[in-house]
Specification:
InterPro entries: EpsH-like, Exo/Archaeosortase_dom, Exosortase. Its main location: membrane. It is found in: Cell membrane. The chain is mainly alpha-helical. The chain has two domains: 4-139, no CATH class; 143-296, no CATH class. Helices cover 74% and strands 4% of the residues. The protein has helices at residues 12-18, 20-40, 50-62, 65-71, 77-96, 100-119, 121-126, 128-133, 142-166, 194-211, 216-223, 226-248, 250-254, 256-279, 281-296; strands spanning 171-174, 177-180, 183-186. The protein has a three-stranded antiparallel beta sheet. The two termini are 38 Å apart.
Length: 297
């Protein structure tokens, strides 16, 4: 444990030089897993937020590096090793059977165990937000995505059909397939809103933490708006694509405008979250003040 105590006053590069075998082992685990995430998750719409989350999480840790160095107190070595061995077993299982969610989750658990051994639990508690925030890097398993996406697709399809039918358009629906005039449109997974919900939640949490370091109650309150905002934004997106198909043909809706609509939808939803935060700013100040009074008491 005395060797671990030497972390204090050292740089990250010095730690790597002091523990070369540990550094090489980490690189042997982290690099292949990052490559797997980049090719299997980050290259898809479902994981497009991953690189941003990883970069900003590491930045949040880096900006507090002086505090980490100053307050580092080694944790229990045997407890850290036990968690590390368990994480290694889970990682090997996920890697062998190509379960990316398991592999990435186990990698983060292993990194957390190593960090605990070097800096202790008190400092990890202070870094609770970057640690939890990095969980958004873990890709959701396919069975979970399918279970959530299908009900969202049905909900979006029902709303789009009802709104356009109320407006007088000749539209009908069977499941998640929409029929308008001579055209048939399938509401795909991207239009369900799950990707927007995940991305907006991650960015919203980062926004709240960085700008306000607001109370947990306010953070939860603002996040309650994420799901309805994301769903409504995707309903508007689908309505726009249906109307483009109706007036200009299927080719127009499936080309450049389809991808552009996705970008506009996400940006609009994000701006809506910012607007909600602005409207709720008096409540945020009240909750923050109430939290400080509670701390003083």
């Amino acid at each position: 444990m005395a060797g671990l105590a030497r972390i204090k006053g050292s740089s990250a590069l010095a730690h790597a030089r002091r523990f070369p075998l540990l550094t090489l082992a980490l690189l042997a685990v982290v690099i292949p897993t990052l490559l797997a995430i980049a090719t299997q998750s980050w290259s898809t719409e479902a994981g497009v937020h991953g690189p941003l989350v990883l970069a900003t999480a590491l930045w949040l840790i880096w900006r507090r590096w002086d505090e980490i160095v100053a307050e580092a107190r080694p944790g229990n070595l045997w407890l850290g090793l036990a968690v590390l061995l368990a994480a290694a077993g889970i990682y090997a299982f996920g890697r062998a059977f190509n379960f990316l969610s398991v592999e990435v989750g186990a990698m983060l658990l292993a990194l957390l165990a190593i960090a605990y051994v070097f800096v202790g639990h008190r400092l990890l508690l202070k870094l609770w937000f970057p640690i939890l925030y990095m969980g958004f890097v873990v890709p959701l398993p396919g069975w979970f995505v399918d279970g959530i996406t299908q009900p969202l697709k049905i909900l979006v399809s029902e709303w789009v059909t009802w709104l356009l039918a109320t407006a007088g358009y000749p539209i009908a629906r069977i499941g998640v397939t929409l029929y308008i005039a001579q055209y048939q449109l399938l509401v795909e997974d991207a239009c369900a809103g799950l990707n927007s919900i995940i991305s907006l939640t991650a960015i919203g949490l980062f926004y709240i933490y960085l700008l306000y370091n607001a109370s947990a109650r306010y953070a939860l309150l603002l996040l309650l708006f994420v799901i309805p905002v994301a769903v409504v934004a995707n309903v508007i997106r689908v309505i726009g694509l249906v109307l483009i198909t109706y007036y200009f043909g299927d080719a127009a809706a499936q080309g450049y405008l389809h991808n552009f609509a996705g970008i506009v939808t996400f940006v609009s939803a994000l701006l809506t979250i910012f607007a909600v935060d602005w409207v709720l700013s008096p409540l945020r100040r009240w909750l923050s003040g109430d939290a400080r009074e509670g701390g003083v008491a």
